[in-house]
Amino acid sequence: TFYIEPLKINKLGVRASDTFVLTPTPQPKDDFQEELVIRPLHSGDIYASFQFRTLWETDFMRENKVSHYRLFPKSLGQVISKFSVRELHISFTQGYWRTMQWGQPFLPSPPGAELWVWFQDSVTDVDAAWKELTNVLSGIFCASLNFIDSTNTVQPSASFKPLGIVNETDHRFLRYATLPREIVCTENLTPWKKLLPCGSKAGLAVLLKSEKLFHSSFFSQTVHIRPVCQDRECKTTSWELRQTLNVVFDLHTSGQGKREWSLFKMFSRTLTEACPLASSSKIYIDVTDNPQEEYFELSPATPLLSQAVVLGDRRTFSVYDLTQQVTFGTVRSLNLLIRWKSTEGECSMLRPLLHAERYVAGYGLQTGEIHTVMYNNHPFRSFPVLLLDSVPWYLRLYIHTLTVTSKGKDNTPSYIHYQPSKDRMRPHLLEMLVQLPPHSVTEVTVQFERALLKWTEYTPDPNHGFYVGSSVISALVPSSVAMDTNITQEQPLFSSFFPCKEESSYFVRVYTEPLLVNLPTPDFSMPYNVICLTCTVVAVGYGSLYNLLTRSFQIEEPNPRLAKKIANFIRRIRGVPLLS
Amino acid sequence: MGLLSDPNRRRALISLLTRLNAPICGMPVDWLVKTMQARGLEVFTQRFSRTLPFPDENNERYIVEGTNVYGILRAPRAPRTEALVLSAPCSPGDDNNQAVGLLLGLAHYFRNQVFWAKDIIFLVNEHDLIGMQAWLEGYHHTNTTGMDWSPLQGRGGSIQAALSLELSSDVVTSLDIVLEGLNGQLPNLDLANLFYAFCQKIGVLCTIQGRIQRNDWDSVSGYSHAVQTMMLMVMKQASGRSWGDHGLFLRYHIEAATIKGINSFRQYKTDATTVGRLLEGMYRKLNNLLERLHQSYFFYLMPSLSHFVSIGYYMPAFGLLAVILLLRALDLWVQLATPPSRNEDGVADIEQSSTGVLSVLTPLVISHLTGAALYMLPVRFQEMAVEHFQVSETEAVVLTAIAVYTGGLALPHNTHRLISGEGTEQGWRVLKLVAVLYLAVLLGCTALINFSLGFILALTLVPVASFVTPHVPKLLSAVVLVILSPAFTLLFSVFIFQELQEMPVSFQDGWMLYLSVISQGILDHYLYGSLVYPLIALMVYPCWLLFWNILFWK
Questions:
Q1: Does A359 contact B at CB distance below 8 Å?
Q2: Does the interface predicted TM-score (ipTM) exceed 0.90?
Q3: Which residues 427-486 on chain A approach chain B with CB closer than 8 angstroms?
Q4: Nearest chain A residue (CA) to B137
């Protein structure tokens, strides 16, 4: 009863006024879909990507606050309305995505934690809202997001455009920060799972057991909130909460070197049901490289096949629909098994169209040089990329030494946005648009000087080094097949995240590795030694001398003690000779 | 530790070692790439080429071309920020195949483990130090020595520590750790401690400078054994060369050491499995490090693997030597400050001081020009020398160096020809004051960077600096001065080093060794950026010439 009553009020309150009358068939106000994509990788490893999407047709920004939540997690809904958030993207990643071995991920993320937020243009003090928001999110996700402050926050001008409905893109309302040092573990996974409507009780989420997820080569969990269109004309908008979890299991350590993967082997669980609240619950297995089952076989086999255009490539998937009871068979449990016919793994590297790497060059503790190397492996097409670098203030970039070279020649960026750092206030921000010639290597170098920190500014482990976050490369890469531009058409979730505006290219974001830079570090054991030595000298040497000099020596008169006085008093009364 | 405890892995390692024992022409690059890939590593290669300034007769190479092969074991869930390196040099004709086999065996074993937190780079470098130099320069994208190398494709972030493995024979009875690196740099002492601790744990015989540790410290023979070990270390450090592939890592602030397998024909033999267990232990320890090795000493001398002499103990010895120079300088200063009795009018004083400046400046400039000639001429004029004399390029370089050095002894005559009039009593005092202070600063700086070199130079040059005046017996003093000059110091060092290594040589062989040491020193400078040759040629030798000049002051 408690549950139904507010729902009725809500229905009366919202729907009677606007859309309810207009649409003849009433759509559900909120909707939940879940999906698991499994892609056997070239290297013998296996990539599993979970996607959970909650759509809710509501308006968090209206006057009377939204108070009733069904599928959408209340904690996030309150965050959206309190801080007037238009878009929110968080990712927690442990490990680095190996593009050369695994190809492109469905949804890229940098090592550590990344957070970027677009605020509504009604927000007056964005910095204050951002600071409070990071602290709240830090509590929600049990992460160190509260370490985000002005020294690691930037406002990119071009690299991070809103992914949902775009009204205005004034980057004053955007904040972007990464924490490359953040370590992701079960305490971050648990609150993430609690955001799901079924928790980890039913549906695909039962597979998310941390003892297996953190026994992998790569782990990443994200939360994306954005407003999206409900239909083609965009008459109605709704809020989309997308939770994804990507994990790569290693052939050698998780798979014991055997090319045979099953749900049980990967997650130590099997599936018995879909989440009852989900409108769709599917498992996709990428079988593009295996059209006639010549390399591996799936068991149980499925007749359902689906095609989707993902990352510039038309892929074929075998589909298991968990909402159908027949999927679970007679044993009422689904344990998908992918078995290779030959055990030989291919070990050559891939050549993805776009990939990048970054490193620190030089030696010594005074100066250095950051090299960012971008590879365009397309045989005949050149394309532009946006490079975003956010470097902490304690690496003082010499921006006049910035060089961009492709094929041994200077490559002038067509757009450069540089915001110099302020000591202890804000980081460097460097954004530029670079055209990558076909089949080329483009190298961006900039020299820096290492600052000497104040002694309280060093971390507790200063000799570990200081992190510089990944640089972000955003690009529209030429696609070999026509991309799907129709956003309303029914698509698998994994292929529908980045909006696609033209058929000939697709959007890719590539993160480079973070850097670990050593700064000149004092020997912190020395102050301790000095303090010990000084204290000893003061205590022993000066102390005893001072004592000798200032003490006045005098002969003490023997003073009879109290007990003796009492004894003598009694003796005097008794008339006995006194004690001496 | 479970390395190679299961028979399959042991069989795999044995087959690898047998494969590698077959004679190989050059480095089997393709085979190495394939083998490493089959073990699940990301494999990359790097080509490099280098033309030496003159042929290296010791290693018989002039135009060097080669390929480095390295495979990266990516640690699970690590963001590619930290790495460890295990390297094994592999050259044609070199028999380090055991080490390469062990490296591949370890790569295979390490790949299946889950506990790695840092990437591990398995590097097989061709042409030992030159290949290593090319790889390190490529990894850090620097070019200090003008080598040609192709850029590296894969990296693992900042390298925390490195070990280089050299097993020169099939049978290993003991393991030796080599610490001395380029320019006398040493890795953090904790790396040596780690090695020693694991050798003790596993029960492997371990040595330093190839000498076994003795326990009888109290006895005279035990003490002298330890002193000899330490003197070997001093000699090696003073040479400024890299005594193993690890030496080049130290410039990049990477703690590194070379582990050598030695066959000393003992009863007890160490098999490859034991060496593998030792390395596994060391890498697991290094993998667990949260910070770079920094807690222990970087400046030390080791009389044995379990004992060390820290900078606090050995620096006072040098300090006492340097104080002699300062006291002598003070003495000269006081002598100069007291007004000479015979000059009473101010005019003469002024004249004298102007000639004084000239008399100091001229020898300074000329001796430094001679030093510059010693530094430049040998390599520049090797072709001309080869044309005019029937010698090889290497001999030409070395003999030119000796000729320039000897030619510099004629300096006093040149100087006196330039200075008009006679040198005064005041003049040589000023010159000596300058020279003594110069030497003090020079030795002080050298000792801070490379203690052994500074100390050996101080031992020979400080007596010279303190006794030389124009009034001592000329011939005797000249002989003493020449015997204590840097070139003779090097000659004596060669003989003492051979003596300490228990491989005494005849004078003839010693002389040949001396010539090759000179050529090696020059090559080390051009190939790896060793600073000993320029230091001697541009600073120490001119400084010594100043004293030579004072002796022959007229």
A1: yes
A2: no
A3: 461-465, 467
A4: A362
Which residue ranges in chain A fall short of pLDDT 70? 1-28, 63-64, 167-168, 343-347, 484-490, 560
pLDDT tens, position by position, B173-221: 889 999 999 999 999 999 999 999 999 999 898 999 888 888 888 899 9
CA dist., res. A21 & res. A94, Å (int)? 49
Q: What's chain A's average pLDDT?
A: 86
* Run of H or E including A564: helix A562-574
Residues of A in contact with B141 (CB under 8 A): 359, 361-362, 369, 371
The pLDDT, as a whole number, for residue A569 is 87
Are the beta carbons of A100 and B42 separated by less than 8 Å? yes
* Residue A347 contacts B, CB cutoff 8 Å: yes
* CA atoms of A115 and A106, how far apart (whole Å): 18
Residue B350 is predicted with a pLDDT of 47
Neighbour tally for A202: CB within 10 Å:
19
Describe the strand order of the beta sheet including A383-391 as a list of residue ranges.
A415-419, A428-436, A383-391, A472-478, A505-511
Say if CB A120 and CB A61 are below 8 A apart.
yes
Strand partners, A525: none
Could you tell me if B114 lies within 8 Å of chain A, comparing CB atoms?
Answer: yes
Please give the pLDDT value at position B13: 60
Query: Between B42, B79, B252, which is nearest A514 by CB?
Result: B79
Residue in B81, B144, B289 to test binding to A, most A beta-carbons within 10 Å: B81
Residue A222: helix, strand or coil by DSSP?
strand
Q: Cβ-count burial of A291 within 10 angstroms (0-12 exposed, 13-18 middle, 19+ buried)? A: exposed
Task: Please report the residues numbered 371 through 390 in chain A whose beta carbons come closer than 8 angstroms to any beta carbon of chain B.
Answer: 371
Contact indicator for A449, A366 with CB cutoff of 8 Å: yes
- Confidence (pLDDT) at B502: 85
Question: Which residue, among A495, A354, A491, A478, has the nearest Cα to A39 in the 3D structure?
Answer: A495
Chain B contact present for A252, CB below 8 A: yes
Please judge whether A257 and B112 are an interchain contact, meaning their C-beta atoms are less than 8 angstroms apart: yes
Give the Cβ contact number of residue A233 at 10 Å. 8
Residues of B in contact with A366 (CB under 8 A): none
Give me A258's structure tokens.
């055997």
Q: DSSP letters along A176-190, please?
A: EEEETTPPP-HHHHH
Q: What is the CA radius of gyration of chain B?
A: 27
Inter-chain touch B142–A100, beta carbons under 8 Å: no
Q: Is the pLDDT at B259 greater than 90, yes or no?
A: yes
